[in-house]
Amino acid sequence: MTENSTPTSNGRLGILMPGLGAVSSTVIAGVMAARQGSVAPIGSLSQMGRIQVDPADPDSDKPLIKEFVPIADMNDLVFGGWDPISANALEAAQVANVLQGEDLAAISSELEGVVAMDAVFDQKWVSRLEGVRVKELTSKWDQAMALMDDIERFRSENGCDRLVMVWCGSTEAYSEPSDVHSSLDAFEQGLKDNDDNIAPSQIYAYAALQSNVPFCNGAPNLSLDFPGMVELAEKRGVPICGKDFKTGQTLMKTLIAPGLKTRQLGLNGWFSTNILGNRDGEVLDAPENFKTKEVSKLGVLGSILEPENNPELYGDIEHEVRINYYKPRGDNKEGWDAIDIFGWLGYEMQIKVDFLCRDSILAAPLVLDMALFMDLAAQNGASGIQDWMSFYFKAPQFNNPDHIEHDLFAQERMLHAKLREFANS
Fold first, then answer.
1. What is the Cβ-side half-sphere exposure of residue 2, based on CA atoms within 13 angstroms?
2. What is the rounded end-to-end Cα distance, in angstroms, of the chain?
3. Domain residue limits, the chain
4. Does the reported pTM lie above 0.90?
5. Per-residue pLDDT band at 331 (split at 50, 70, 90)
6. CATH superfamily name and code, 249-356
7. Most distant CA pair in the chain: distance in Å?
8. Contact at 8 Å (CB) between 164 and 216?
9. Closest Cα to residue 81, out of 147, 142, 143, 29?
10. Mean pLDDT of 379-392
């Protein structure tokens, strides 16, 4: 690469999103607005982040990431998705009420053009929602085949050279791997047998991988992290990553906890609660769905603080997480954290965090980054679990489940290292 050259990834990239709701419509709206030049893509590492060319030389160049590796240009992106409720991205944006007034009006016609395909949906997995735009197929195998047909039709009709799928749908009811998840053969037989343990997100993941489409899991669902799906990803040579977008409260934890550990300050307890009024908040109001999210959120502190290596500081932490549905708040989530720490001579102190954030505004740039980086990975022949993408997830999927990194800054170093590898390939 010459000093002034910018690597490019030619061709049209389709970004498919199961769940055309608040996050998906906000992603699409932000990309469209950025194309018009009205706003910068704030929060997107792929668009605004820089990378040290040589980490061993602090004086080496720090180009923009999008000028360092050949990721797709935002002008070459086309969007599609499935949704059991919304007819198109404009309707989804209006219901979500994330964007308002002139911001929405300026791109309303383009949003309306992103029409949702009928979804694979089962209310068993999201009891608080009622699907009205769903595929009238009872066989899970037939549902998977229908999704594969959707994928190929979208690819053809939109002239896409490549596709990526990012799950932006709801959190499904909590489940653990069963026999049907133990191998690819077992999973495919389970699809044909309509096994009750196969959730809709798993059917989307299966259809994507069989269609050679990289899949990113933005929810805490059991979508990818079981032997059968990992086997399929490796067999098809397709990259996968997940799970659960790291946006609000957990983002704060991965910022604060490394600082406590670095300064050798002790932690007695961390109590977290949230109020949220969008569709995600409504879904999580059901105990079986909250359980899925709770497990995702609770795993962060232990990995970062390593209590087995620091028992005096972190050996007996009380960690609690709550989410409360509060309709008036809409997409503007509020996360409260009460953090009880201790220092020199054991004296106790407290940290209070009140994060008034916008859930979809934080998640949207992550979806864009995931799509572009996973497309880059696929073009470089990567397959299976991409643990370098852990930067974006609450419960990142790692090749070695015994070593899962949650420290945001360590995750950033992993991501940059992989981008340098791609740049030099």
1. 2
2. 11
3. 13-245+361-423, 249-356
4. yes
5. confident
6. Dihydrodipicolinate Reductase; domain 2 (3.30.360.10)
7. 68
8. yes
9. 147
10. 97
Task: Determine the Cα–Cα distance for residues 232 and 223; give it in Å rounded to an integer.
Answer: 12
**Does position 278 have pLDDT exceeding 90, yes or no?**
no
Closest Cα partner for 63 from 72, 50, 46?
A: 50
Tokens 């809709």 correspond to 200
Burial class (CB in 10 A: 0-12, 13-18, 19+), 392: buried
How do strand 334-342 and strand 266-276 relate by DSSP bridges? antiparallel
pLDDT in tens, 5-53: 566 678 999 999 999 999 999 999 999 999 998 899 999 999 999 999 9
Spell out the SS3 assignment of the chain.
Answer: CCCCCCCCCCCCEEEEEECCCHHHHHHHHHHHHHHHCCCCCCCCHHHHCECCCCCCCCCCCCCEHHHHCCCCCHHHEEEEEECCCCCEHHHHHHHHCCCCHHHHHCCHHHHHCCECECECCCCCCCCCCCCCCECCCCCHHHHHHHHHHHHHHHHHHCCCCEEEEEECCCCCCCCCCCHHHCCHHHHHHHHHCCCCCCCHHHHHHHHHHHCCCCEEECCCCCCCCCHHHHHHHHHHCCEEEECCECCCHHHHHHHHHHHHHHCCCEEEEEEEEEEECCHHHHHHCCHHHHHHHHHHHHCHHHHHHCCCCCHHHHCCCEEEEEEEECHHHCCCCEEEEEEEEECHHHCEEEEEEEEECCHHHHHHHHHHHHHHHHHHHHHCCCCEECHHHHHHECCCCCCCCCCCCCCHHHHHHHHHHHHHHHHCC
Question: d(Cα 24, Cα 87) in Å, to the nearest integer?
Answer: 13
Q: Which residue has the tokens 């998840």?
A: 181
Q: Please, what's the b/e burial string for 149-171 (b: 16 or more CB within 10 A of its CB; e: otherwise)?
A: ebbeebbeeeebebbbbbbbbbb
- Classified by CATH at the fold level, domain 13-245+361-423 comes out as Rossmann fold (3.40.50)
* 334-342 and 348-356 beta bridge pairing: antiparallel
The residue whose two tokens read 């059901």 is 286
How many residues would you count in the chain? 425
